[in-house]
Amino acid sequence: MADEDVPHTNGNGHEENGHVPEIELIIKASTIDGRRKGACLFCQEYFMDLYLLAELKTISLKVTTVDMQKPPPDFRSNFDANPPPILIDNGMAVLENEKIERHIMKNVPGGYNLFVQDKEVATLIENLYSKLKLMLLKKDDVSINSLLSHLRKINLHLEKKNTRFLTGDTMCCFDCELMPRLQHIRVAGKYFMDFQMPTDLRYLWRYMLHMYQLDAFTQSCPADQDIVNHYKQQQNLMLQNVKMKKHEELETPTFTTSIPVELDLQQDE
What we know:
Layout: E1 2-4, E2 14-15, E3 18-19, E4 22-28, H1 41-55, E5 60-66, H2 75-78, E6 86-89, E7 92-94, H3 97-107, H4 111-114, H5 119-125, H6 128-138, H7 141-161, H8 173-193, H9 202-212, H10 215-218, H11 224-232
Parallel strand pairs: 4-5
Antiparallel strand pairs: 1-5, 2-3, 4-6, 6-7
Helix pairs in contact: 1-3, 1-8, 6-7, 6-8, 7-9, 8-11
């Protein structure tokens, strides 16, 4: 297990006005080096949720990575063989994604404000990830167009809303869910299929630009190589026509956090 440095969030657990609880989040480590952040979408989503609360100083956050290929001897016995993400609050381990979300919302100071109710946005981002996986598996025009259609709906919503984030000018749980998935679409889509989000999705790119400027995203984001390796390890993608032209384990980690040069979004700021 490796502790991850989380700038501006770790501390002695106390503020001038009293005790600030320390929350530990155990996340999957990189399948390349076993130490840095892995490419688990749920791990990044909850990392972002908790990072935002740590920035507000309602909690002190500790993030620990666990190499699931070689877990510590006591890991499986301590957590009933449940894989990360795992949240630990005051010595109590919270397992399973839905229970972690509920715990952040109901028990972690400030968490209630992150979990806004918006059925339209919830429906809008639902099934986006499954369309990425289908595209990587099928590699046909139907699956590509299905993903593009979904991205265009998100772009249209952002255009109509005309706010920095999905529900307003403040981040919420939906942003912490959507942005990691957009990053996987961008990195894995490019690597396996040379798929790129169209530049005419201007409001979606503006949204991503805002997210790339936030510590909550950049501190939680896995390296491009870990995202690629994540899909290479999925059995359905281990196909002969996938050229292993790169050796991720030999590369210096890179992070795609730029936008297409032809997009001038400064006037939209």
